[in-house]
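Please, structure for the following, as tokens.
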Amino acid sequence: MNDPSTSPEPRPVPTRRGIYLLPNLLTTACLACGFFAIVSAINGDFSAAGLALFVAMIFDGMDGRVARWTGTESVFGKEYDSLADMVSFGVAPALVAYQWGFAAISEYGDAWGRFGWIASFIYAVCAALRLARFNARAATLDKRYFEGLPSPSAAGLVSAFVWFSSEWTDPGLLGLSLTFSVCLIAGGLMVSSFPYTSVKQIDWNARVKFFYFVIVPISLALVAVQPSPMLLFLYSCYALSAPFMWLVRRLRRGGPRGPGESPAGHG
């Protein structure tokens, strides 16, 4: 009667449906900020557009940490985060830059107008390629470094430049062409192999030098007083840090190599 061979097989445990609320709400807030930045740019409010993208970065940094702290990481959350990043840090900065400069730069000729359109589109394409590469290599990458400029940092560079430039009364052809050149530079750095230090791996319990304890509050205070120039300065320093270190190692020839560099020093 109790022969194991005739006993019914145990039913498979059904797959749990639904999504975790808190981390995905934060991701949705990041997406909402990107959408608001696009709408603000269409309405000509570029200060609000730039601010919205920086708020999106805060939510983007929070959702992953909250998911890890609460043990609510999921495949759905990772995919949703990537799609939200594409909107907020790929499409939104490109459209903000396009909306701000395209009409003005077109006044200098059709060729300049096409340059603005192409530069904005190339930035969006590079952001998509950067996110796809990150997702494909996430399991094998060195967590201490990012391969290429992270898309939120690239968005910060572009949006800070537009925010800063929108305060000019008349940027002229030079200022407009420089804005779209920043889009091209940010896009190129995203798909590059330069190793960028990951701020996500900072050990908040570790001891730090007194210099860092002082400089961080001062930087935050300066950002609060003069947000657009200070954010442009900070994001420019981070974006240029990896190419600068690569150049220093190339000049030294025998210096320490970054992750992914060949023995000849090529990044």
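The first strand starts at residue 145 and ends at 147. Residues 262-267 have pLDDT under 50 and may be disordered.
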